[in-house]
Design brief:
The chain is α/β, with parallel strands linked by helices. Helices cover about 35% and strands about 20% of the residues. The protein contains 7 helices and 11 strands. The protein has helices spanning about 35-45, 65-70, 90-95, 110-120, 135-150, 165-180, 195-200, and strands at about 5, 10-15, 25-30, 55, 60, 75, 100, 105, 155-160, 185-190, 205.
Length: about 210
């Protein structure tokens, strides 16, 4: 409600209102510079909003950063992937929240199995021990999606998710999104591709 954000004299968001219903896909459109990504970064805690409030499950929230947002059930798959490329796949998914043995040692076996479980659920065929830098961008993006799902997120934001995907990979992504929607997850899907938006969205919001 009434979200505003300025960078210096440049007012990017001017009292924006947006509603996202549980178990729906909201298509978010608008030309470059309309403020789509800025609004999502305010939701995700990457930026701090200047005005307005965010309500999740009837409770007002304000996240100090992405980690805080993730722990409260909001995940974002960014257009620019920000991953630890020299680490392996499972490290990238569980970094900062490793399960431990006796509170001290990292439980490598559990991390590996948990990664396999998430991949099986999403039909992702990637070796959990593969180093990120050796993978194509499309597979790295699937890892990012698996990470979002592993937090049991209530809301997942997809920012231009198909820009580096083949037609077959887009179909796979849409299957994942439909599965998440059926589970009651709220999805915000940002794209410039009109055909995709019309196909995947339950509602469409256009920012000018």
């Amino acid at each position: 409600r009434n979200m505003s954000k300025s960078f210096g004299r440049n007012r990017v968001l001017d009292h924006i209102n947006l509603d996202l219903k549980r178990g729906t896909v909201m298509g978010l459109m608008g030309e470059n510079g309309a403020g789509k990504s800025t609004m999502m970064k305010c939701l995700f805690g990457t930026y701090q909003k200047d005005e307005g409030k965010i309500t999740l499950d009837g409770r007002e929230v304000s996240f100090s950063g992405p980690k805080d947002a993730l722990e409260n059930g909001i995940a974002m798959v960014h257009q620019e992937l920000n991953q630890a490329l020299k680490r392996n796949v499972m490290d990238n998914i569980w970094l900062g929240r490793y399960p431990k043995v006796g509170g001290l040692m990292v439980n490598e076996r559990k991390i590996y199995q948990d990664t396999l479980d998430v991949f099986k659920e999403l039909e992702i065929d990637v070796d959990p021990k593969r180093v990120m830098s050796t993978m194509p961008v499309s597979q790295r993006q699937m890892v990012e999606i698996a990470k979002a799902v592993s937090f049991n997120s209530k809301i997942i934001v997809f920012d231009e998710p198909t820009s580096s995907l083949t037609e077959e990979e887009v179909e796979h992504l849409f299957r994942i999104i439909n599965m998440l929607r059926d589970r009651g997850c709220g999805i915000i899907y940002i794209s410039h591709k009109m055909a995709e938006i019309k196909r995947i969205s339950d509602e469409i919001t256009i920012m000018r």
